[in-house]
Please model this.
Amino acid sequence: METAVVTGTSTGIGFATAVHLARNGYRVYAGLRNLAKAGPLEAAAEEHGLPLEVIRLDVTDAENVAEAFEQIRGHGPVDVLVNNAGIGGATPLELTPEDEHRAMFDTNYFGAVRCIQEVVPDMRERGRGAIVNITSVEGRLAVPNQIPYSASKWALECVGEALAHELSRFGVRVVNVEPGVIMT
Model:
């Protein structure tokens, strides 16, 4: 059974992706920053007998990311990484404090980079794997009053596009998915 790691699984796209992958033959490690929100996902997994384990995975915490992936690799290599964890915000630029910009980049960009760096060496060595970045249509089209969010998603778009070229010769696929507004 192949292994998938999905970040940001408490609601929305991450929740649906984790359940979908588990229903379709993957052993899924569903990452959550706050395990207090794990109830609905654990209930869905139990109800359907899915091979899904909820783990604490706070993409903004480098130590936690390293520990989580070490735990996962103890059960075998990661075949699929879905970088879904993200935060947004809607404030005009002149009113957006710098710490909000940094929080969005730390989660939406650096969080994904941390996770990618944990899986790439093994994927490259094995000659296979897939990395899926859930970016946003705002990673292509800037939206007023959401500049920090758009900028962080543009940065993640860049990582995905460049990394796809870097890793294609090693048999590793990198895909950016650009959804529109999702009510989570």
Observations:
- Residues 98-126 form the longest helix (29 residues).
- The mean pLDDT is 95.
- Residues 53 and 172 are 24 Å apart (CA to CA).
